């Protein structure tokens, strides 16, 4: 274990209590409780979940349903991001940002005054917009790229009882469905240079990788997280805009008229990545995308879910970096540009 600080004073702030934020919080807290029970001590951090919606008390019960349909419940400290000026908060050892990509600038505006430049901040977003944006503002930046799958069930049972001495039944319950296990890559945004923040970020990545492994996630550190983020972006760019535009499940992309569109999208994407010197996967882009479509055939992809719920999508975070890179290299993206335009106007 790469221990950094007294575990009792070791707080991880997870900002964005949605599907991924809750999955991470619930898994870490369950692991911490297990270690405390079995060994009397744990190097895992305590979790403070920070959202923008007020809850009934200062703690919530997080009920995570595992892929095997077990329910794991943990009591988690909760607060709203606009109460950060309250000096009673313990300063965090690390911060994980788990909002959607377009949520990061608003979070940062509220967060920045309350943390030091040394605090490691990890971006969990898909796409490649939040990470470079934050890298210009905070040097000690880490990124995670994950294929874990999680979604939020409809909320149940809110309590209005204050939580001093409260029991599990008094607390507001938040649920999360861990839909499928995946793989997480973790690394410093800037790696391989000789700056102080560089080595701090690498140390933080090693420690946070230990936390994730202890919490049951398959996780590896990488010295080149930017390539991993491009690879995830490529898969998301080949699948998400098409399924969101045509409102279909991923598996339908194997049928006409969509299969030729996927091939064209992958050709456009791989030309951009080649021009940028991003290495292709061993099996090639077409085979990798086909494999992900097969493995997620029954999914309603995240961008489709956002469109159906009338929420903003991550189209800018996913297609934006491809479009700007293509423009820099003089490449045309007829299909992706068209999808971008259609998905950038409000969907009904
Ligand atoms: N879900 C998944 O399986 C996976 C998700 N990802 C990526 O992880 C990121 C998060 O996705 P996901 O968890 O699904 O998204 P969700 O929409 O479920 O969660 C986002 C959370 O962020 C909160 N939030 C938004 N703005 C703020 C703010 N200013 N301050 C505090 N909290 C805020 C939202 O709160 P509110 O309810 O108030 O809007 C919501 O709880 C995305 O980039 C996604 O692409 C990556 C891999 C898998
Ligand atoms: C890989 C894919 C497209 C699976 O649905 C995904 O990551 C998403 O839904 O955002």
TrEMBL record:
The keyword Nucleotide-binding does not apply. It holds the Pfam family ApbA_C. It comes from the Bacteria. Residues 14-189 form the Ketopantoate reductase N-terminal domain. Pathway: Cofactor biosynthesis; (R)-pantothenate biosynthesis; (R)-pantoate from 3-methyl-2-oxobutanoate: step 2/2. Residues 224-344 form the Ketopantoate reductase C-terminal domain. Its EC number is 1.1.1.169. It catalyses: (R)-pantoate + NADP(+) = 2-dehydropantoate + NADPH + H(+). Keywords: NADP, Oxidoreductase, Pantothenate biosynthesis. The keyword Oxidoreductase applies. GO terms for molecular function: 2-dehydropantoate 2-reductase activity. Belongs to the ketopantoate reductase family. Catalyzes the NADPH-dependent reduction of ketopantoate into pantoic acid. This is 2-dehydropantoate 2-reductase. It comes from Cobetia amphilecti. The lineage of its organism: Bacteria, Pseudomonadati, Pseudomonadota, Gammaproteobacteria, Oceanospirillales.
């Amino acid at each position: 274990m790469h221990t950094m600080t007294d575990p009792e004073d070791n707080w991880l702030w997870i900002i964005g209590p949605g599907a991924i934020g809750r999955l991470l919080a619930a898994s870490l807290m369950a692991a911490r409780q297990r270690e405390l029970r079995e060994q009397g001590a744990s190097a895992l951090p305590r979790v403070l979940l920070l959202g923008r919606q007020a809850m009934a008390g200062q703690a919530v019960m997080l009920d995570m349903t595992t892929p095997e349909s077990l329910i794991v419940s943990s009591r988690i400290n909760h607060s709203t991001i606009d109460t950060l000026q309250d000096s009673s908060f313990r300063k965090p050892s690390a911060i994980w940002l788990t909002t959607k990509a377009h949520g990061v600038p608003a979070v940062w505006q509220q967060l920045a005054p309350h943390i030091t430049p040394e605090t490691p901040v990890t971006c969990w977003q898909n796409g490649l917009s939040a990470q470079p944006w934050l890298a210009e503002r905070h040097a000690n930046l880490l990124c995670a790229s994950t294929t874990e799958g999680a979604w939020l069930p409809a909320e149940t049972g809110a309590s209005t009882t204050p939580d001093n001495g409260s029991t599990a039944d008094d607390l507001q319950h938040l649920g999360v469905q861990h839909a499928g296990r995946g793989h997480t890559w973790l690394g410093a945004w800037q790696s391989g240079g000789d700056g102080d923040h560089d080595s701090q970020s690498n140390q933080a990545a090693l420690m946070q990788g230990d936390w994730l492994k202890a919490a049951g996630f398959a996780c590896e550190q990488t010295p080149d997280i930017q390539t991993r983020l491009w690879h995830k972006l490529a898969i998301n760019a080949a699948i998400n805009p098409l399924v969101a535009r045509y409102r279909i499940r991923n598996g339908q992309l194997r049928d006409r008229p969509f299969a030729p569109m996927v091939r064209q999208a992958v050709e456009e994407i791989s030309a951009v990545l080649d021009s940028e010197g991003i290495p292709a996967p061993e099996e090639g882009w077409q085979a990798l995308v086909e494999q992900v479509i097969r493995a997620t055939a029954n999914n309603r992809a995240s961008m489709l879910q956002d469109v159906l719920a009338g929420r903003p999508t991550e189209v800018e975070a996913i297609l934006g970096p491809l479009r700007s890179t293509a423009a820099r290299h003089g490449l045309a993206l007829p299909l992706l540009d068209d999808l971008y335009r259609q998905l950038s106007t409000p969907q009904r």
